[in-house]
């Protein structure tokens, strides 16, 4: 079944604007104008300008954010990832470029009304199965896929058990979790889901290039949407890469609301 009626735009805008994830291992600098997040070193974007909504002059606030970013312990070649999100101030992308920013990624913000039930996602290829991460090996498999698809570094071994405990607690509380897709026993896909305020947020979905075209992404999408429905979610929200997951999501009935752009800025 392909959906034709888009969700309420105001709800999507509000849910997207509220979508900021700060893990407990991260460090932050927050002011009225911005939120900087210093993720652990193994993340593919170790430093991110997660929120930027200046009340005054845009350039002055941006320079203050860049100055604050330089206070973190970072390699000499470190860069800041900064987003142009929904409701971004006019001229923000140009301000990034003026300070040496380079467009890094473009995402579609897509949403699906779940009140009529799950979308029809078809069948995955033979040998493809999706498992919830519930042990250390599953977390290793997920991390390995993430590194190959998105970049970054492998999660240190000493971080695996604490991370697993956090995800187990989240799953048991109905707040989401992470899945790994396997093709004949080999990990080929990864994805996460969070259930927040009656919405299900789908994130981190990626498939190894050699496994694409076998329904792996759709299988992970189906399992994550099903988890949202089990928790009573009425809206599915995802930010998908325009070249890869975006077209799959649109075929599944998700509606595109806007595009977000990220830049990398030198420090």
UniProtKB/TrEMBL annotation:
Question: Sorted alphabetically, which InterPro entries does this protein's record hold?
Answer: Acyl_CoA_acyltransferase, GNAT_dom
Q: N-acetyltransferase domain spans which residues?
A: 128-267
Which SUPFAM superfamilies does the record cross-reference, listed alphabetically? Acyl-CoA N-acyltransferases (Nat)
**Gene3D superfamilies membership:** 3.40.630.30
An example of a Pfam family matching this protein is Acetyltransf_1
CDD domains the UniProt entry points to: NAT_SF
What protein does this entry describe?
N-acetyltransferase domain-containing protein
Source species, please? Answer: Nocardioides aquaticus
